[in-house]
Design brief:
Elements (H helix, E strand, L loop, with lengths): L4 H5 L16 E2 L10 H14 L9 H20 L6 E5 L2 H16 L5 E5 L8 H10 L2 E5 L10 H7 L3 E7 L11 H10 L3 E5 L11 H4 L3 E5 L10 E5 L1 H4 L12 E4 L4 E3 L13 H14 L4 H20 L4 E3 L10 E6 L4 H10 L2 E2 L1 E3 L4 H6 L5 E5 L6 H18 L1
Helix pairs in contact: 2-10, 3-10, 4-5, 11-14
Bound molecules: pyridoxal-5'-phosphate.
Pyridoxal-5'-phosphate binds next to helix 4.
């Protein structure tokens, strides 16, 4: 079936926006965050205008409505991600999810001299928490490089790095290269040596139906805002065996069973890790997003957006002086990082903005990756299911004209 982005585009009010310079918005910064359909905005607004209340704590009508909606959202999101056996802990996003693992599992299970394995492709959110832990506890961080020509992880180096490792942390799909890593193989190899595995699936969740339980990683981190959901919420999926090895993260209300003057006892399961008033409106909005997404054939929407990315990448590769990263293979994220020899990334982004085109510029929170390629910054155009072929063509034409004129 041919995928028609115009059918779904209508649900996003922001995509009709005319910018202050009079140009229609061409939104190509979807890897940073996607736009939200009206149903998500309306569901959150309905919570605040009709049944705003705290959850889990009171017996009044509003509280039970809010609790039902919040716990219903957890169930709907867990189902969307194919969680048949395990736990969904709400966090503020991928960053908090990984920090939670470093604090709750890392501090309880890693000690001086233990090794953890990271890749050079990681986002800063999967680097800095481990460096903080390394500084505090004295764990060794081993880095897996990637091939600078074909952007594949060096699996030979990965296997060598596994010796005696306690934890492997790997980005599922790179936010700079778009490359989807061989996650299944990585999980199997790591488990064969008894290491736990954390997968940063922030860029996979918008394009790939990740079956969390089938995947079998010990930890998987995602953010709602990259898949049509609201900002401020995400999840850490943890299998039950690993959850029992984790100490609480934040202490406070809702995560306790009983509090005495000299000690406290804790709730079981996810609740032990969700202290304080949770992200109620956000969970409701995220559940609405997955309900909306479930009307869309994920495979055909991804095929559409990767086709746009590939078209742009091919056109850019024929421009003299242009470097285009990644491969835009079928399973990759639909994004293109590009940089021209003579037109600085920041200047390019500003000139594109003058034409209404929103792209990302900078190190994309992946400085080690860019440094390993000898780069400080790139432009990144990233596509989502509502982007159209016209928008891709407009990006190509505009970049070609800018380069002819200014380089
Ligand atoms: C691969 C990857 N990991 C982690 C993050 C951090 O996500 P968040 O800012 O939602 O916590 C991002 C966000 O850009 C990302 O692309």
């Amino acid at each position: 079936m041919v995928f028609d982005p115009y059918t779904w585009r209508k649900d996003f009010p922001i995509l009709n926006r005319i910018l202050p310079n009079g140009k229609p918005l061409v939104y190509l910064d979807n890897s940073a965050t996607t736009q939200k359909p009206s149903c998500v905005i309306d569901a959150m607004s309905r919570y605040y205008s009709e049944y705003n209340s705290n959850v889990h704590r009171a017996v009044h009508t509003l509280s039970s409505e809010a609790t039902d909606a919040y716990e219903g959202a957890r169930k709907m999101i867990a189902d969307w991600f194919g969680l048949t056996d395990g736990n969904l802990l709400f966090t503020s996003g991928t960053t908090e999810a990984i920090n939670l693992v470093a604090h709750s599992w890392g501090r309880a299970n890693l000690s001086k001299g233990d090794a953890i394995v990271l890749t050079e492709m990681e986002h800063h959110s999967d680097i800095v928490p481990w460096q903080m832990l390394a500084e505090e506890v004295g764990v060794e961080i081993r880095w897996v490089p990637f091939d600078k020509e074909n952007f594949q992880l060096d699996m030979g180096a990965f296997e060598i790095s596994l010796e005696g490792a306690k934890l492997v942390c790997c980005i599922h799909t790179s936010n700079v290269l778009g490359i989807r890593n061989p996650i299944e193989e990585i999980i199997t190899l790591a488990h064969n040596v008894g290491a736990r595995v954390l997968i940063d699936a922030a860029q996979a969740a918008p394009h790939d139906r990740i079956g969390i339980s089938e995947l079998g990683a010990d930890f998987v981190a995602v953010s709602a805002h990259k898949m049509s959901g609201p900002t401020g919420i995400g999840a850490l999926f943890v299998n039950t065996e690993t959850l029992t090895e984790m100490k609480p993260f934040l202490g406070g209300g809702d995560m306790i069973r009983e509090v005495f003057l000299d000690h406290s006892t804790y709730q079981e399961g996810s609740f032990k890790f969700e202290a304080g008033t949770p992200k109620i409106a956000e969970a409701i909005g995220w559940a609405e997003a997955v309900k909306w997404l479930s009307n869309i054939g994920f495979e055909s929407s991804h095929a559409h957006s990767i086709k746009l990315a590939r078209k742009v990448a091919d056109a850019f590769r024929s421009i003299p002086g242009m470097t285009v990263l990644g491969k835009q293979d079928n399973a990759d994220a639909p994004l293109i990082s590009f940089i021209h020899d003579t037109l600085h990334a920041e200047d390019m982004a500003q000139m594109l903005d003058a034409h209404g085109i929103a792209v990302r510029t900078g190190h994309h929170c992946a400085q080690p990756l860019l440094r390993s390629l000898g780069l400080a910054s790139t432009n990144r155009a990233s596509f989502y299911l509502y982007n159209t072929e016209e928008e891709a063509d407009f990006l190509i034409e505009t970049v070609q004209k800018l380069i002819e004129r200014f380089s």
